[in-house]
Amino acid sequence: MIEVQHLTKKYGKHLALDDLSFTIEKGQIYGFLGPNGAGKSTTMNIMTGYISATSGEVLIDGHSILDEPEKAKKSIGYLPEIPPLYLDMTVMEYLKFVAELKKIPKDKRSAEVRKASTLVKLNDVSNRLIRNLSKGYKQRTGLAAAVLGFPDIIILDEPTVGLDPKQIIEIRQLIRKLAKDHTVILSSHILAEVQEICDYVLIISKGKLVGSGTPEELEELSHGKDSIELTVKSDADTIQSVLDRIDGIQNVTWRNQGAGSCDLLVDTSKSAQEVCEDISIAFATERIPVTRINILKATLEDIFLELTESSQKDEEGETKR
Amino acid sequence: MKAIYKRELRSYFTSMIGCAFIAFITIIGGVYFMVYNLYSGYPYFAYSLSGVIFVLLIAVPVLSMKCFAEERKNKTDQLLLTSPVSLIEIVFGKYLAMITIFAIPCLIFCLFPLIIKLQGNAYLLVDYSSIFAFFLLGCVFIAAGMFLSSLTESPVIAAISTCAVLFFMYMLGSLIDYIPSSAVSGLIILIIFFSLICALIYYITRNPVIAGILEVICLIACIAVYIVKSSLFENLVINVLENFVITDVFYNIAQNYIFDVSGLFYYLSLIILFVFLTIQTFQKRRWS
Predict the structure, then answer these.
(1) Residue numbers in B near A71 (CB within 8 A)
(2) What is the top-level taxon of the source organism (chain B) (predicted)?
(3) Is B25 left (phi over 0), alpha (psi -120 to 50) or beta?
(4) Which of A54, A73, A86 sits opposite B82 (nearest CB)?
(5) Residue of B nearest to A142 (CA)
(6) 8 Å CB contact between B93 and B5
(7) How many Å lie between the alpha carbon of B104 and the closest alpha carbon of chain A?
(8) Per mean pLDDT, which range of A12-16, A265-269, B62-66, B215-219 is the poorest?
(9) Which residues of A touch B280 (CB under 8 A)?
(10) Are A31 and A200 in contact (CB under 8 A)?
(11) From the candidates B73, B76, B78, which should be mutated to test the interface with A, based on the most A CB atoms within 10 A?
C-alpha cells in the first residue's frame, strides 16, 4: 500500500531522517512512536507530498508522490500537527471547500460532508466560525477534513494532543472504527496510546527506524529482560545457595535483608515463567516458605526507552570518534 | 481550481481587504475623474486614469500580500499542497480571484466615459482601450505581488517588497535619464551584471569551478568586444532598460493615442512569467 524507501531529509547540516525504509499494509492501524524531534512529522509531511525528501522515494499504491502527485494524494487524508483551518470560514463552509478540493463529485458532496461531520460529532457547531471554536473542536474539524471522502489511507499527526480525556477516548474509538476499512497511520509520543490502539508500531529515533512490530512482538523482544520479585522467609546465604542451582538466573538484586525474611529481585535470561516455576519448586523442596512471587513484565515503555537511548548512545559514540 | 477561486474570493470579502481595495481605487479614480473631466472639462478619461496608476503601487501590495504568505504562516498551505490538486490550479485559482477583485473597479471605470458622452464629446475608443491597458498593467502588478508573496512567510514583508518592486517598475522611465551613457560605463555595468549572474550560479550550484570559468569567459568577451567595437557599449544600459519601462505601454495608449499591440503582449508575457515563477517556487519546495 505505502512503500517508503531510503528516505533521507537534511535541514541544512541537521539530519532529520536517515535512510528510513518501511512498508505499510492495508487495513491496519500503524503507530509512529518516538521522542520529540525524532522525525515523525517530517516523515508524514514527506509521505503526503508536502515537503520534499533530500533523497529516497515514497510510493502510494505504486504511484510516486513526486511524479504522480495527484493520483497519490487522492488516496490520502492527512491531519497535520496543526490542523490547517481557515479561521474566517464556518465549519460547514470549510468542509464543503475541502470536499471540493478533494474532487468529490458535486452530487455526493453534501452527503459526504454530513457523513464526516456526524462521524466526528461536529453537527452542533457546523454553523460557527472556526475562529471561535475550542481547541478540541478545531482538532475535530481537522479530523473531519482528513476523513472526508473516506480515502484509503488516513494519516494523523498526533491526533489527541491538547484534547481532554473524554475527547481522547472518543477519538480513539473513532480511529478504531475507521480502521475497519481504512489504513490508519498515526504518530504519538504517548506510549499508552500507541499500545492501546495500534496493530503495528514503528519506533523512530533520531530519524532512524530503531524497532518495529506489533506491540506483542515488541514486548517479546524483551524476553529475558523480565524480572521476578520474591519475598523469601530465610536468610540470604541459604537463598543464594538455592538460587545458584537454578539455570536462567542472570543477576540477583537484594532489596531488603531482614532477620527472618528477604526481598529480592531476580533478572532472568530465559522465559520468566519457567524460571518462576523452577524457583518455587526449588524453595518448596528445601521447605523454605516463599511468601510472595511476582513476574515483572518488561513493558513497551522499557523497550522504547532502551531502543531510543541506545540509538542516542550510538550517535554520541560516533561523534566522539 | 474552482474551489480555491471561490474560497479566495469569499475570503477577500469577509476580511474587508477586497472591499477596501475596490473602494480605494474607485474613490481615487472618481476624484481624478471629477477634477479633470467634470470640472476642467477635459474629454479624455484616459488622462485621469494615468493618475490612478500611482494608487496601484499602494493598493496592489495590500491585495496580494496575504495570498501565499498568510497560508504559509497559518500552515493552511499544508491542506492545499496535500490535496489532489495541481500547483497550477492552486496558483491560477488564487491569481484569478485577485484579478476578479481588480476587475470590479475597472468595470466601474467603464461607466465614466459614458458620463462624459452625456455631457458632450467623448473619445470612447481611446478611453476603453486605456481602461483595458490599465487593467492589464494592474494584472502585471498583481502577478508580481503574488510571486513575492510566495517567497515569504510574512504578509508584511510581502507587502513592503511588492511596494518596492512596483515603485521601481513605475519610476524606471524617469530614472533612466540619470544612467550614464558613455561606452566605459556601459562596459563596467555589464561586467558587474555578469559577475552577479556568476555569483548567483555559484550560490545555486555550489560549484566554484563552473562559476569561475563563466566569470572569466564573460570578462574576456566583454573586454574583447569593447576593444574591437567600443561604440556597441554606448547607451547599452539605457537601451536595455527602456524595454522594461512597462508603464510606457499604458501612457502610449492613454496620452499619445497609440494602440501598442506588442506592448499588450509584453504585459501578457510578464503575467505569464510571474505566474510561472510562483509555480516554480512551490515546485522547488516539493523537489529537493
Answers:
(1) 84
(2) Bacteria
(3) alpha
(4) A73
(5) B79
(6) yes
(7) 23
(8) A265-269
(9) none
(10) yes
(11) B78
Domain-located, residue B239: no
CA distance A47 to A240: 56
The low-confidence residues of chain B, meaning pLDDT below 50, are none
Q: CB-based contact (8 Å) between B285 and chain A?
A: yes
Three-class DSSP category at B257: coil
Q: Does A89 touch chain B (CB under 8 A)?
A: yes
Residues B198 and B282 in one domain: no
- Write down the residue that cell numbers 560549484 correspond to: B207
Q: Is residue B261 part of a domain?
A: yes
| Chain A closest-CA separation from residue B208 CA (Å) | 19
Asked whether residue B168 falls in the same domain as residue B200, the answer is no
What is the residue range of B262's domain?
Answer: 2-176+245-287
Whether the Cβ atoms of residue B195 and residue B212 lie closer than 8 Å to each other: no
B203 and B69 both lie in a single domain:
no
Task: Give the residue from chain B lying closest to A67, CA to CA.
Answer: B287
Q: How confident is the model at residue A224 (pLDDT cuts 50, 70, 90)?
A: low
Digit-coded pLDDT (tens) for A167-184:
888 888 888 888 888 899
ipTM entry: 0.84
Asked if B49 has any chain A CB less than 8 Å from its own CB, the reply is no
CB A186 within 8 A of CB A77: no
**Given B234, B261, B278, which residue is the final one in a domain?**
B234
Cβ contact, residue pair B288, A52, below 8 Å: yes
Q: Which of residues 84-113 of B touch A (CB under 8 A)?
A: 84-86
- Stretch A230-255: mean pLDDT, rounded? 82
Is B83's CB within 8 Å of A101's CB? yes
Same domain flag for B13 and B146: yes
Residue B240 maps to a domain: no
Look-up of cell digits 481550481 = B1
B7 Cβ contact list (under 8 Å, min separation 6): A86, A89, A97
Same domain, B139 and B191: no
| Per-residue pLDDT, A298 | 67
Residues of A in contact with B74 (CB under 8 A): 84-87
Domain count within chain B: 2
A58 has a chain B CB within 8 A of its CB: no
Same domain membership, residue B137 and residue B209: no
B225 shares a domain with B127: no
